[in-house]
Amino acid sequence: MGYPYIILALAVGLVLPLQVGINAELARRVLSPMTASFFSFAIGTLGLLVCAWIVRVPWPDWSTLVTFPSWMWLGGLIGAFAVFGGVVSGPKIGFLALVSLVLAGQLIASLILDHNGWLGFPVRELSLGRISGSILLLIAVTLIHKY
After folding, report:
1. pTM of the shown model
2. Number of Cβ atoms within 10 Å of the Cβ of 86
3. What angle do CA 83, 142, 135 make, to 5 degrees?
């Protein structure tokens, strides 16, 4: 596993609580978590378009896009749900509880996805170490949320 990917993953983890806080404050000011989530996604979309233009990413043909299975387009809806869920629940339960509960959900889903090799990822069988580590993290999530 390369260090740049580890650092990138850590950086994503470091900024996600900031995203929740920023979006929650935006929701408070625009008086709507839905509107705040929309603006968050709109600005993110513009940012990605600018980045794609700068690095000159080739754009796929429409005829190619329409051949993809429909489930592939769920990623954007899942992202919107994640942003909206963070905006709504974050201010009620706090940053640490939100991130720990999101992590718990990610752990459970990741164990299942890895074990089955779904969505094009390689199969990573369940093992005592992976299950034990996940259980320890889930115990931490419980303690964080409770206290």
Report:
1. 0.82
2. 25
3. 100
**Residue 36's closest CA among 79, 93, 88?**
88
3-state secondary structure the chain: CCHHHHHHHHHHHHHHHHHHHHHHHHHHHHCCHHHHHHHHHHHHHHHHHHHHHHCCCCCCCHHHHCCCCHHHHHHHHHHHHHHHHHHHHHHHHCHHHHHHHHHHHHHHHHHHHHHHCHHHCCCCCCCHHHHHHHHHHHHHHHHHHHC
Q: Which domain does 128 fall in, by range?
A: 3-146
Name the residue among 93, 99, 103 with its Cα closest to residue 138. Answer: 103
Domain count, the chain: 1
For 10, half-sphere exposure in the C-beta direction (CA atoms, 13 angstrom radius) is 6
pLDDT along the chain (147 residues), means of 10: 88 91 96 96 95 94 93 92 94 90 89 93 93 90 82
